[in-house]
Amino acid sequence: MVTVLKAAVREDLRGSRLSKIRQQGHIPAVVYGKKFESRPVAVEEVDFIKTMRSEGKTGVFKLDIDGTQTDVMIYDMQFDTLKNKVVHVDFYAADMKVEMDADVPVSVVGESIGVKEGGVLQQAVYELSVRALPQQLPDSIEVNVENLDVNDALLVKDLTAGENYEFNNDPEEVVVSITPPDEEPEEPEVEVDEEPELVGSEEEDGEPEVSGEKDN
C-alpha cells in the first residue's frame, strides 16, 4: 500500500506565522526538485512522524499537496534538541526514472573478534552516499564486523554494493575499525629522598664535634 502524506500550501511566509503553524501541531516544510518548482507547505506533525518511521529517510512516498500527489522523499530535517521536535522538513520531488544521490545510514552488525578480545570498535562513517533510482535506494547499509580483529578495518571498497545502487564515497575511506584496548598507565616511580644528615650527628669515633669550644 502506497503511503500518502497530506500537505497544505503555505501562503503566509512570515516568521511569526511559522511559530503559529508549529503551535497548531503542524511542521513547516518546503518541496523542491529538478522539475518541480519550489513550494512552501505544512504537514501535520503526527502524520509526518508516522510516515518517517514507516518509510525511513530514503523511502519514496506520495505527498498530497491540496489534492495533487507528488512522489517525494525526506531530503533534510531541522530538529530542535531541547524540545525534541522536528521544526522544518525539506521534501525532494523525485523523478522516478532518473538516478539520484542520497545519504544512507550505516548499520553495524555483529560483534567482532577484536572487541571480544578487549578491542574498541570505532565507527568513522555513519552515512554513505549512494546513487540509485529513487525507489531502489536502500533503507540502510549493513556492515558486518564479526571477522574484524584488533587493528583491522573495513574500507568502503570492502563493502558489497547492491545490484541496483553504487557508492559515491572514496573507496579508501575507513568505515569501521578495531583499535587496541587502552593500555593501563604505568604507575610513576616515586623517588624516596635519602634521610637528611642531622646537624651535629655523631662521628664514627663517638663524641659529637662541638665548634667554638674554648680551651681551659
From TrEMBL:
Residues 172-216 are annotated as: Disordered. Residues 5-91 form the Large ribosomal subunit protein bL25 L25 domain. GO terms for biological process: translation. Transmembrane segments: none annotated. It holds the Pfam family Ribosomal_TL5_C. Residues 100-181 form the Large ribosomal subunit protein bL25 beta domain. InterPro entries: Rbsml_bL25/Gln-tRNA_synth_N, Ribosomal_bL25/Gln-tRNA_synth, Ribosomal_bL25_b-dom, Ribosomal_bL25_C, Ribosomal_bL25_long, Ribosomal_L25_dom, Ribosomal_uL5_bac-type. Residues 181-210 have a biased composition (Acidic residues). One of its GO terms (cellular component) is cytosolic large ribosomal subunit. Keywords: Ribonucleoprotein, Ribosomal protein, RNA-binding, rRNA-binding. One of its GO terms (molecular function) is 5S rRNA binding. NCBIfam families: bL25_bact_ctc (TIGR00731), PRK05618.2-4 (NF004133). This is one of the proteins that binds to the 5S RNA in the ribosome where it forms part of the central protuberance. Part of the 50S ribosomal subunit; part of the 5S rRNA/L5/L18/L25 subcomplex. Contacts the 5S rRNA. Binds to the 5S rRNA independently of L5 and L18. Belongs to the bacterial ribosomal protein bL25 family. CTC subfamily. This is Large ribosomal subunit protein bL25. It comes from Alkalicoccus halolimnae.
